[in-house]
Amino acid sequence: MKLSICLFSFLILGVVSYENKFRFAGTVLCRSEKPWCVRIRVIEVDTLIDDTIAADDFCSTEQTRTYDIEGVDENDGILDRNFEIQMVVTHNCSRNTETVFKTGIKRIPLPKAPTEHATIRQHLNLNMNNSQ
Ligand SMILES: *[C@@H]1O[C@H](CO)[C@@H](O)[C@H](O)[C@H]1NC(C)=O
Fold first, then answer.
1. How far apart are the first and last CA of the chain?
2. With a 6 A CB cut-off, is 37 part of the ligand 1 pocket?
3. Is 92's C-beta closer than 6 angstroms to any atom of ligand 1?
4. Domain that holds residue 67
5. 67 CA distance to ligand 1 centroid (A)?
């Protein structure tokens, strides 16, 4: 009985998860006569269901806006060795309908302890539908 409890707690502690803090910041560019809206969603792509780490949405009449969003993702420590981070940007800058584009995937090695990661900077050009 005692042995099985010991073994059980070892297994639990062996795969204990810890927090990774992320911060994403940058500028959004949209040349438009009309007001425009954007939704920025940052996801971790290599899980079964894409995990949303952080999200923000806003509308603007300016040509340039900044964003600064934070989020936390748990590191399960067993499945893989990298965070694979991608932004999904939905906007109506250049058309009446919503346009969606994704940025390239950024791989961040998994740290071995709780970590506050350096801010990830990304410029989003909605007219080009890409990131630069
Ligand atoms: C984008 O959506 C907002 C809110 O629905 C609307 O006010 C704006 O005119 C739209 N912009 C364009 C370019 O369609």
1. 59
2. yes
3. yes
4. 17-131
5. 19
Pair 18, 80: CB distance under 8 Å: no
The string of pLDDT tens digits covering residues 54-66 is: 999 999 999 999 9
Ligand 1 centroid–CA 81 distance in Å is 41
Task: Tell whether 74 is covered by a domain.
Answer: yes
Structural domain count, the chain: 1
Q: For residues 32-57, b (16+ Cβ closer than 10 Å) or e, as one string?
A: beeebebebbbbbebeeeebebbeee
Spacing, Cα 96 to ligand 1 middle (Å): 7
**Residue 34 located in a structural domain:** yes
What CATH number did the domain enclosing 54 receive?
2.60.40.3330
12 part of a folded domain:
no
pLDDT in tens, 85-127: 999 999 999 887 899 999 999 998 888 888 999 999 999 999 9
Whether residue 6 lies inside any domain: the answer is no
Q: Is 114 close to ligand 1, i.e. is its CB under 6 Å away?
A: no
Shortest-distance atom of ligand 1 to CA 33: 13
